[in-house]
Amino acid sequence: MTRTRIKTLLAAVLTAWIAATNATAQDRADYILTPEAPATPRINGARVYGARPGADFLYRIPCTGERPIAFSAEGLPKGLSLDPATGIIRGAVKKAGTYNVTLKATNAKGVDSRNFRIEIGDRIALTPPMGWNSWNCWGNSVSQEKVMSSARAMLEKGLADYGWSYINIDDGWQGIRGGRENAIQPNSKFPDMKALADFLHENGLKFGIYSGPWAGTYAGHVGECADTEDGRYAWIDSGLVDEYYKIDRSRVSRDTVRYFTRYNFVEQDARQWAEWGVDYLKYDWNPNDEYNVRIMSEALRATGRDIVYSISNSSKVAMGDYLRRYANCWRTTGDIRDNWDNMSKIGFKGQDMWAAYKRPGNWPDADMLVVGKVGWGPSTHESKLTPDEQYTHITLWSILSSPLLIGCDMAELDDFTVSLLCNSEVIDVNQDELGLQASRIYGDDKYATYLKPLHDGTVAIAMFNLSAEPMKIGFIPRSIGLVGDQKIRDIWRQKDIATCSYRERWETEVAPHGCFFVKVSPVKPDAIPFGYEAHWK
Predict the structure, then answer these.
(1) CB under 8 Å to 201, separation ≥6 — which residues?
(2) How far apart are CA 133 and CA 537, in angstroms?
(3) Is 388 a known active-site residue?
(4) From the candidates 161, 171, 227, 284, which is the catalytic residue?
(5) 474 close to 486: Cβ distance less than 8 angstroms
């Protein structure tokens, strides 16, 4: 075959690949339901935020609208200050208590305000954490440059304006022990952890890191215990690692480093993370045990820094009360994958048992979001979930009040994925201050209907079609405890779509593996039902 012929064939293949990619992107664009945010200011995200007395306080007011926006806040407790240009609140509050604040945002198009409650006390993570984690995208190939890229994308693509805030490094950052604390130091892929944390904090974002209590982590980097009192590891001393101090899997199995020793460095590492400015720890091993859950919790608390403590993986419900006492989040499953069977099994079959343990400050975690470009390594691919399945994924995680951690390459977010992640009303359901997990009120192997009470007295209802055929799904307000005519609001489209008598059935057609997400509220909130007037007086 001639060189010219080879070039022609390669050009044809490239053209076909670009056409297929563009067609796929256009197909996803056709599925966008979320309306564009208005030019007027709109304050988004949680309505409550918790911090401990004396701890560093950092909160970026999530707000969409035409820039520039001027921010103000009435009722901030002593010790906090607001940057009016960025909307970032910083400082520390010494006195415990509840502080009711009014946030305000103003631009050339209008004004928005929102009541915001600051709780200074013993609990943090009063709503499910929202952010990004590196594993489902980069796996062990993560680097400081890639993390910075995701952080910039969170800002530039507007996700921070909806409450997304954590930038979490998963396994792959660890080098050997050293420094003042003889703590784990970063490998050469992370030349300056403090500079990374400072960049995030300057922009109102939070910094997360990863470790585990074994001598080695799942990927084969060093963990919280060591072979010797001075923090040395036999496999490193023997040269059985690559240039990043990761186990050389061609010479030794990763399983051989998953063991406990008598020498742990939990307190030293916690102090090092606090010095860097870490705000979130993912702590990963299986099976979880009470001792290791507790000692890391105590070490984090001893630093004086508010660090969200997230246990991974496959926690068991028998440990629920113990986890609730010591951890903020805990993974209820193994690792998620971007296919319907895995995602739906995790979401629909693995979460209901955890409802009793979910409350502000405690969040059973259904694992990361597999939308956008994922890959678990150096290369990525578009999520294998269909658009309808992605709507089901986000809707289910929202109504379950699961932590929301994006797992894709943030720099490669397309318009469809941004629309999935930047719907203020979907986020409101997840971030509702009551912190309740939805209950499954109807369903079988073909469909499922979930209901979640919200803080304003309304309810969110998600109807899922688990089958491969379109299906009509609905409910009768009276049968689920709602009295009086009800207003039905499409949460994804952010519009009111129907009014329903409380005695009548309301239903809609739901696509295969798809969902319909609504908020149901009384047409007349203070109305007394007919025939009840005498009893109400």
Answers:
(1) 58, 207, 277
(2) 55
(3) no
(4) 284
(5) no
Residue 30 CB partners (closer than 8 Å, separation 6+): none
Residues paired with 118 in a beta bridge: 49, 99
Q: Which amino acid is at 262?
A: R
Parallel, antiparallel, or unpaired: how do β-strands 88-91 and 57-60 relate? antiparallel
Is the CB of residue 282 less than 8 Å from the CB of residue 223? Answer: no
Element (H, E) at 427: helix 424-430
pLDDT tens, residue order, the chain (537 aa): 555 554 444 444 334 443 444 446 557 889 999 999 999 999 999 999 999 999 999 999 999 999 999 999 999 999 999 999 999 999 999 999 999 999 999 999 999 999 999 999 999 999 999 999 999 999 999 999 999 999 999 999 999 999 999 999 999 999 999 999 999 999 999 999 999 999 999 999 999 999 999 999 999 999 999 999 999 999 999 999 999 999 999 999 888 999 999 999 999 999 999 999 999 999 999 999 999 999 999 999 999 999 999 999 999 999 999 999 999 999 999 999 999 999 999 999 989 999 999 999 999 999 999 999 999 988 999 999 999 999 999 999 999 999 999 999 999 999 999 999 999 999 999 999 999 999 999 999 999 999 999 999 999 999 999 999 999 999 999 999 999 999 999 999 999 999 999 999 999 999 999 999 999 999 988 776 666 555 444
Q: What pTM was estimated for this model as a whole?
A: 0.93
Whether 415 is a known active-site residue: answer: no
Residue 442 tokens read as 């109807």
Residue 198: phi and psi, rounded to 5, are -65, -40
Q: Compute the distance between CA of residue 257 and CA of residue 171 in angstroms, rounded to an integer.
A: 14
Q: Using a CB cutoff of 8 Å and minimum separation of 24, what contacts does 289-294 make?
A: 290/319, 290/322, 292/213, 293/319, 293/322, 293/323, 293/326, 293/327, 294/326
In the block, tokens 């470009």 appear at: 373
Tell me the two tokens of residue 196: 């990374």
The single residue of 161, 335, 365, 367 carrying the catalytic annotation is 335
Q: Which residues, at least 6 apart from 373, have a Cβ–Cβ distance to it below 8 Å?
A: 137, 380, 381, 382, 383, 408, 409, 412
φ and ψ at residue 229, rounded to 5 degrees: -65, -25
Measure the CA–CA gap between 234 and 306, rounded to whole angstroms: 34
Cα–Cα distance, 172 to 135 (Å, whole number):
9
Report yes or no: 123 and 360 within 8 Å, Cβ to Cβ. yes
Q: Residue 409 is which amino acid?
A: D
